Amino acid sequence: MRKLVYYVASTLDGFIAAPDGSYDFLPLEPDVAAHLSAEWPQTFPTFTHAQFGIASPPAGRFDALLMGRATYDPALKIGVTSPYAHLTQYVFSRSLPPSDDPQVEIVDADPVAFVRDLKQQPGGDIWLCGGGQLAGQLLDEVDELVVKLHPIVAGSGIPLADRGFTPTRFTLVDTLPFDSGLVVLRYTAGAR
User: Domain named Bacterial bifunctional deaminase-reductase C-terminal: which ranges (predicted)?
Assistant: First the structure.
């Protein structure tokens, strides 16, 4: 069965973006960029592959990604309808019209039921790209959580998982610290 992997950057206090949705305060340091482009190349937007020396199409474990409307919006604002053209992209939105791009499907269905069905279909793992509201709805479906933890305290913003108080335990399986202070933490889901 396919796994749902929530791979995301976060501050120490658990925010993935500023209150306005921007995330430029979470820098991509050179030491981290080299590692991520080698180990997680599929998580870079397609139009950045040449800049980071990533083969096209990049090899990796994912063949699909999920994102919310707010995560998709920055690409749309610069005229990119398929930011991750190397993957099948599912955008959860009740307000966007169907996409003309064959790599992008606009989904207005229940995310949990959709993901449970998607996991049963053949294919590679599924990357939950963001945002916080979608992650909050899907947290119980997440099989692996990979957090690029920045040494920054933001104070407020978009939380890693926006949902009511529901403590959910994950098991730490790997840590990778970088000289820049960022730590990549990899967790698996607890018993369900």
Answer: 3-183
Among residues 8, 36, 22, the alpha carbon closest in space to that of 154 is found at: 22
**Domains observed in the chain:** 4-18+60-189 (3.40.430.10)
Question: Per-residue b/e over 79-109, b at no fewer than 16 CB within 10 Å?
Answer: ebebbbbbbbbbbbbeebeebeeebbebbee
- Residue count of the chain, please give it: 192
Q: What gap in Å lies between CA 115 and CA 137, rounded to an integer? A: 11
Q: Which residue bears the tokens 């269905």?
A: 109
pLDDT of residue 145: 98
pTM: 0.95
Task: Dump pLDDT digits (tens) for 54-112.
Answer: 998 899 999 999 999 999 999 999 999 999 999 999 999 999 999 999 999 999 999 99
CA distances from 88 to 31, 83, 91, 103, 106 (A): 29, 10, 10, 5, 11
Provide the pLDDT confidence category of residue 53 given band limits of 50, 70 and 90: very high
Is the CB of residue 4 less than 8 Å from the CB of residue 120? no
Question: Could you give the 3-state DSSP secondary structure of residue 60?
Answer: coil
Q: What is the DSSP string of 1-48?
A: ---EEEEEEE-TTSEEE-TTS--TTS---HHHHHHHHHH-GGGS-GGG
Q: Tens of pLDDT along 111-125?
A: 999 999 999 999 999
